[in-house]
Amino acid sequence: MRDKGLIFGGLCVFLVAVTFPVWYNVAAGTTNKGPEPKLPAAEKECVASVDTMRTSHMDMLIAWRDQVVRQNQRTVTAFNGKTYDMRLTGTCLKCHDNKAEFCDRCHNYAGVQPYCWECHVDPAHLQRTGGG
Amino acid sequence: MDRRKFIGIAAGASALALAGSALPKLIGGGSGGGTEESSKTRWAMVIDPSKCLKRDGCTACVAACDKVHNIPGFHDPKHEVKWIWKEPFENAFPEQENRFTAEQFKEKPFILLCNHCDNPPCVRVCPTQATWKRGDGIVMMDWHRCIGCRYCMAACPYGSRSFNWSDPRTHIERMDPGFPTRTKGVVEKCTFCDERIARGEKPACVEACPEKAMAFGDLADPKSEVRRLLEGRYSIRRKPELGTQPEVFYLI
Fold it and tell me: Where are the alpha helices (DSSP H) in chain B?
């Protein structure tokens, strides 16, 4: 066991290197908790059930887009019998008025960057920046 | 009947049948090139320049359009984005060339916008169907689908289409959250205010005109205001010789 120091030293370095991500996250305070989007306080019901919205809102928005722009169909009768205008800013953001705390929280967590907002306007953001 | 005679009759009959089915296509050119759907509505605009010219330098219609559609104001004329604009008579109607154009029109600004042609060349060249003709006559734009190839701009004989060479958002004076902006690399043009028509309103320019020089309505309805105006007075259209069938009329 002439190389005892070298072997155990090497093992220590190896262990530290392998477990580095764990220590790094502990130090940075990262947890494995999911994102917590802030839901609107006043409204209890969306245009579809929570599960549907959670998994398929993107497909629904694409379908809305095609129906409005290409078929000139502007309203939809939802599961609860209510009729909604198929509008991102006018309908979705009317209840979910805080895009930063609702849309962005999940999208940032999931690492997706939807390009909706390159054209569609977030009125709250507009107010903060004073237009333009 | 022998075999030879039978074959002869059969060949003659099939030749006749083939000619019968192909002839109408050759003569009639099919049904409008397949761009038109059957619809009960045909939106059109009638502009009365003599009313428009009453107010010198009035830009109410242009301002109203810019405001509701978040149209960017690029100062460089090469980057200009316009849905409705003014142009001297000679430029708007080059085929009306006349040494003695009446003083009331000569060098006077005329209001121009997308003509929403019945036979739109822009639609024919668009490779992604980002622009297409709706059943009610509106030449629509789907900005989600536009790839910015600008074929439509080359095809349009009226200069009705504009391209966003840079980010339009930084050049919008007052952004209206009720209407989306466009992005860099997208073509845009007048859509006859399709979003307002859907709500039962008139286009923003028509509503904003202080002289009521613009009328908007349904050509398919014989009792509509546009039909009444067109039946009462002589009207001209921009470059009708190109066969695009523009649906914006100018009363003379």
Answer: 3-28, 49-52, 60-68, 89-92, 121-125, 151-155, 194-197, 204-208, 225-232
